[in-house]
Amino acid sequence: MKVKVKKLVERAVIPTYSKPGDAGLDLTAVDYSETDRYQEYHTGLSFEIPEGYVGLLFPRSSITKHDMLLKNSVGVIDSSFRGEVTLRFQRVSSGMNPLRKDYEVGDRIGQLIILPYPKIEFEEVQELSASERGTGGFGSTNIPFCEEAAFNPLNPNSGDAHNKETCEHCKR
Hints:
By secondary structure, this protein is mainly beta. 2% of the residues lie in helices and 27% in strands. The protein folds into two domains: 4-116, Deoxyuridine 5'-Triphosphate Nucleotidohydrolase, Chain A (Distorted Sandwich), CATH 2.70.40.10; 130-172, no CATH class. Strand 3 and strand 4 (39-42) form a beta hairpin.
């Protein structure tokens, strides 16, 4: 698939795959700025992502060598966006570790993955079909579902309103 890319500065690096089979195209920093809230790395690139596709920005696995996190976890580049792609990072430590360092201009700082997405139309319903997982979330895998304990916003007696002493799920 061909995607149009524009170099906004001469030193910008057109993204490439590092190895065969890679999903993410490496993005390279060409400039850097910092505020008290984040560090911003500029790629010097803008893209024309086709309609029906989205660009997703992810940190590279090398982020583990840095005390930084991508500020918005995953960046979303909509097909209508034509501005420069930048990545903002937040420091997650005091910087006391001498082996850890920030990215530098010229480093590969992130990955771009371009994917198709379906156009979603929601249908409001009164009930959803049952599933094995039910309403369990946040670490509920392999924990039996408790119908009595399930939160239902339409039922004021749901949630903590059942007998926790007799509920097999709650005894665990």
